[in-house]
Specification:
This protein is an alpha/beta fold. The protein folds into three domains: about 110 residues, Tetrapyrrole methylase, N-terminal domain (Cobalt-precorrin-4 Transmethylase, domain 1, 3-Layer(aba) Sandwich); about 100 residues, Tetrapyrrole methylase, C-terminal domain (Methyltransferase, Cobalt-precorrin-4 Transmethylase, Domain 2); about 45 residues. It is about 40% helix and about 20% strand. The strands form two sheets. The chain has a five-stranded parallel beta sheet, with helices on both faces. Strands 6-7-10-8-9 form a five-stranded mixed beta sheet, with helices on both faces. Strand 6, helix 6 and strand 7 form a beta-alpha-beta unit.
């Protein structure tokens, strides 16, 4: 069915997925949308204009909408939509709002009564998951880990208790540290698929244990954006015996996480209430004094 833009009294916001790296991955529908809207709201205007030029599309007005200015831009875009305008929301690559700017804009547009239409396409999450060989019927998407400190340790501890496939993003300058931390927290034997530069010229997809990937990462120069897919951990409904729970408590407390935080993380994993785990933690620490 050929795409036809249908005006809406309260405006139309198209949430458009763009290529991760291979221009041929842009759908005909996405191309048609980008060529007919009144305005494009882009994470980086230079990237968006380069895409338009590569596609040979008309010079549609482009404004920036990135993390630092999205709150302000969302109001401006909502005003344009309320006047009946059509706007395409794009990020540098992939699907907007998935570990990328856009959610504030979509929320503001919805509040303003605009018609919101997804234009699906590339997403690093689904691309990596599809080639991992791990179960995809249930998975956890964690985006980017906090860069450092207690927030990072807390997130890693939470990931260690998840029982499904886990997908993460990581930048080239932190991938070594992340592989090392994941191996340390989740165990060297946890299976992982490491995707680099998905759909681009130097795409690589490597499967191995976290221990092996961690060791290999220190031996080679690392460039490009990464998507990591972790094999499922503990099976749903499988509860640890007390010695296993005790080991988890000791491990998480060694990361300097507060007792309350550790209890909150482990309660669903252990099939106990937070207060029950809290008491066990206090008992263990008293015995180890």
């Amino acid at each position: 069915m050929k795409f036809v833009h249908e005006p809406h009294p309260e405006g139309v916001l198209y949430v458009v997925a763009t290529p991760l790296g291979n221009l041929d991955d842009l759908s005909p529908r996405a191309r048609a949308v980008l060529g007919c809207v009144d305005l494009i709201a882009a994470e980086d205007t230079r990237v968006a204009r380069h895409l338009l030029q590569a596609l040979g599309l008309p010079k549609v007005p482009v404004i920036s909408s990135f993390e630092g200015n999205e709150a302000r831009r969302a109001e401006e875009i909502s005003r344009r939509l309320s006047e009946g305008a059509s706007v395409a929301l794009v990020t540098d690559a992939g699907t907007p709002c998935i570990s990328d700017p856009g959610d504030r804009t979509v929320a503001a547009a919805r509040e303003a009564g605009a018609h919101i239409i997804p234009v699906p396409g590339p997403s690093a999450v689904t691309c990596a998951l599809s080639v991992s060989g791990f179960p995809g019927s249930r998975f956890h998407f964690e985006g980017f880990l906090p860069a450092k400190g207690s927030d990072r340790n807390k997130r890693l501890a939470e990931i260690s208790t998840l029982d499904g496939t886990v997908v993460l993003y990581e930048s080239p300058h932190r991938i070594r540290e992340t592989l090392h931390d994941l191996a340390r927290i989740l165990g060297n034997d946890r299976e992982c698929v490491l995707c680099r530069e998905i759909t681009k010229k130097f795409e690589t997809i490597t499967r191995g244990t976290l221990g092996d990937l961690d060791a290999n990462s220190s031996e080679s120069e690392i460039r490009g954006e990464f998507t990591l897919v972790l094999a499922p951990g503990r099976r749903t409904g499988e509860k640890p015996e007390f010695p296993a729970l005790e080991n988890e408590i000791i491990r998480l407390r060694s990361l300097d996480l507060p007792v309350k935080t550790v209890a909150t993380i482990l309660a669903p994993y252990a099939g106990m209430t937070k207060s029950e785990v809290y008491e066990i933690i206090l008992k263990i620490e008293k015995e180890h004094l």
